[in-house]
Structures are given as C-alpha cells and as structure tokens.
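Good morning C.,

I know you're traveling, so I'll keep this short. The sequence:
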Amino acid sequence: QVQLVESGGGLVQTGGSLRLSCAVSGRTISSYAMGWFRQAPGKGREFVAAIRRSVDNTYYSDSVKGRFTISRDNAKNTVYLQMDSLKPEDTAVYYCATGYDSAAYYRARNYDYWGQGTQVTVSS
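The tokens, ready to paste straight into the viewer:
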C-alpha cells in the first residue's frame, strides 16, 4: 500500500519561509510524478507545484512561481516544497500527491495517492 506522510506545516509570518516534506512508502518516487496542491476554505483544490521523473522537469502555478521550489530526494524517497516570501493568500491546507507521470501534471485526477494534508497559515 502506498502511503504519504506530510510534515512541516505551521504558522508563519508574512515574508517568512517554510519547508514541507512528504515521505512516501510503498512506491519509489523516482519513477513517478509528485505534486503539491492546496485548498483554502471555501475554495477548490488548486495546483501548486509538480516534479516529474526528471528532476529538471518542475512546474509551478503562476501564483507561487519564483517563491516556491519543489525538489526530490530519491535516496530518502521524499519530496519537498520550499516556500519563501510567504503571503497571507498562501494560507491553505497543502496536500502531497503521487501518480503516473503525465503532461497534465496540474490536474488532480492524474494522481492516485494523496497525503492527509498539512495546514499552512501565514499571518500579517
């Protein structure tokens, strides 16, 4: 069974930084795409970032581009989301996901396993 365990969420001040971690078991992530999504209260789940099988293939939503960085440590079977220059509008529950590699990395339906979510709150 594939399991994803997220950590690193919390309360951060505007302009601060936070790194989310997603440890995966039951699947070797180097062979799959990994993605981060987020959901704010009253809103739908939106794409944040993704990394495909090649570490050079990373993608970001326009709202986080230049501030967030997704990376992968194959030895630890863990994916990370480095979040810098945080803004109050980044406040949401963040979800880690894994799925078969696809050009449509921004669509949640292309991921078959999800983490439980971790709360990120950015205060002004």
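Safe travels,
E.
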